[in-house]
Amino acid sequence: MKTMTCKQLYGPCDALIHGETPEEMMENSKKHAMEMIAKGDELHIDAMNTIIRNGENGFLFNNEEEYIKIIKLLKKDKKLRESISNLALKEAYKRYQINKIAKEYLKIYKKLLFVPKQP
Ligand SMILES: [Zn+2]
Questions:
Q1: How far away, in angstroms, is 1 Cα from ligand 1 center?
Q2: How far apart are CA 79 and CA 81, in angstroms?
Q3: 51: Cβ contacts below 8 Å, ≥ 6 apart
Q4: Residues sharing a CB contact under 8 Å with residue 52, sequence separation 6 or more, in sequence order
Q5: Model pTM greater than 0.90?
Q6: For residue 23, how far is its CA from the centre of ligand 1 (angstroms)?
Q7: Which of 17, 28, 38, 83 is the most buried (most CB within 10 A)?
Q8: How do the pLDDT tens digits run along the chain, 119 residues long?
Q9: Cα–ligand 1 centroid distance for 6 (angstroms)
């Protein structure tokens, strides 16, 4: 069993995340973030808000009713749908370029596997 903090996995807090494999660790990190957001934790909500700008490149919602409103709005408004889609795609390309994200994932995997640093 390996343990890392939420911060070591690019989250905002010091909660401990456990897992047997890197995949399980990433999955548990994702679960932790979703649970904290569901509880209304400000640190995790702020971290999410830096990625999703509500109404601009995505939508944030608190319950099923709000989610349904957003879906109906997107169904009616083609311009909004296209704009949200384009901006979300731009954000994804900016944040998750394969060469950038691959290095970050490699760092995490090495920490999890306790691989010594290369010169
Ligand atoms: Zn956390």
A1: 19
A2: 5
A3: 91, 95
A4: 58, 59, 60
A5: no
A6: 17
A7: 17
A8: 889 999 988 899 999 999 988 888 889 999 999 999 889 999 999 888 888 889 999 998 889 999 999 999 999 999 999 999 999 999 888 877 878 778 888 888 887 776 666 66
A9: 5
